[in-house]
Fold this sequence. Notes:
The strands form 6 sheets. Strands 2, 3, 4, 5, 6 and 12 form a 6-stranded mixed sheet that branches. Strands 9-8-10-7-11 form a 5-stranded mixed sheet. It has a 4-stranded antiparallel sheet with strand order 15-16-14-17, with helices on one face. 37% of the residues lie in helices and 23% in strands. Among the domains are: 14-93 and 382-403, Chorismate mutase (Chorismate Mutase Domain, subunit A), CATH 1.20.59; 192-276, Periplasmic binding protein-like II (D-Maltodextrin-Binding Protein, domain 2, 3-Layer(aba) Sandwich), CATH 3.40.190.10; 297-377, ACT domain (Alpha-Beta Plaits, 2-Layer Sandwich), CATH 3.30.70.260; 431-477, no CATH class. It has 16 helices and 21 strands. It has helices spanning 7-41, 50-66, 71-92, 97-101, 116-124, 140-149, 168-176, 211-216, 218-222, 235-245, 256-261, 311-321, 354-364, 388-392, 395-403, 459-471, and strands spanning 94-95, 105-110, 132-137, 154-161, 165-166, 180-188, 192-195, 206-209, 228-231, 250-254, 265-269, 278-285, 290-291, 297-305, 326-333, 341-348, 367-377, 435-437, 440-442, 450-451, 476-477. Helix 2 runs antiparallel to helix 3 and helix 12 (311-321) runs antiparallel to helix 13.
Amino acid sequence: MSDKPNLEEIRKELDDLNERMLDTISQRMQLVEKVAAAKLAQPGQKLRDKERERVMLAELAKKAREKGLNPYYVKRIFNDLIEYSLDDQSRHMSRRDPAETKDLVRIGFQGVEGAYSHLAAQKHFAKDLENAAFVGYSTFGDAFRACERGDLDFVVLPLENTIGGSINATYRLLEDSALHIVGEEVWQVQHCLIGLENVPLGRVRHIASHPQALLQCSAFLASLPGITVESFTDTAEAVRRLKERQEITHAAIASEDAAERYGLHVLKRDIADQKENYTKFVVCAKNPVEYDARLDTKISLVLATNHKEGALLQCLRPFHEHGLNLLKLESRPKLHTPWEYQFYVDFEGHIADQNVTNALEQIQRHTSYLKVLGCYPIRTQGFDAVQVAEDVESTALKEEVAGAFCETPAEPAKTKSAKPYRLAARESGDEKTEIKVGDVVLGDGSFTVIAGPCAVESREQIMESAKLVRDLGGVMLRGGVFKPRTSPYSF
């Protein structure tokens, strides 16, 4: 009888263990539903107890180290479980009528199955997959209008990418439509090169994908000599056409999920120029959704200022006065009105909060147009897990994590505290630092608007920008003069 380990038997044990872990997660989520019900019955109870999360993760990290596990990865796993639990509780603390009262939930997106929009829609409606029908449309507008007609309960469209910036077409649809933003979803984009067979990269002569995907993989494409590229309406459509054509020298850029759906091969993974590539999608419906005020929510709106000096400053001041945290402020040209602009704004708050109502009333006095696009929970999943080590670790816990990589944890060296900087440290005095730039004083307690283009392209552009900034109440002009690694508009 051989003493050598049997790989198949070990894998069978791992499979059995994985199934038991799934059963445990399922039991945990059943308890989470009870927690949500208890919180609903107690209006004063907060949805999220960050102190409890911090203590729990610290304790789990300590136990992980005692068991010979890497506490960093253990905390990542449990942080994802916490986010999953909070997302599930959020669903119980909102009244999303179509999903709760219909046997079939109809969800639209742009593209074909396997497109990133489809994957994001499936992620957002994961709890409704058994009674969900996902319908792809050729264009954003077609999907949007189908929801307006009542053919769909929800439509999921991309709004912003961390590399390419805002999706203007989606903003235009939101502005002109009666649909409401009722949710958002974040999807990490991981581009792969996909082929009919597992051929060497040197044999690839033609690559197809969505224009944005081609742009985001430009460095990889430049490394392949003699190739031609072709644009499609979405990444999954490029994969579908690749399978139809049956050309061995052709390839497509899309998700690994798209390759699996169409039975093709991944030739190379992670080919994007920037690895941290996320797209934010919005979920829209005909009627707004009433969310529990305890949820962390944001409000999106679009406004056009009165065409007079200081108008933008007057619109921004109420956010400061009412303690509302701005998440986004972006200007876009107004259609059919050259050199006039409107602004898209995201800020933290709940639409039922009197503080928010008062701020919006003040803002409206200084606008020629204002429309609230929606109030919906903030989705941060996809980012929190990456940052969990910095977000929840105490100093002692960081020492534990460091010690997990060596046999005996090193005792931290005793260092003498450095003397505070004489001019900057509070220990040296309570005086506030004020900086004077021309006639502008920074740090005197007044609100200052500094604005300008992402990239300086011409004298005409910067002079026109200066006039616009002055007319809208800005007091300082800024502009990017050093081109980033990819697009000058990618930050």
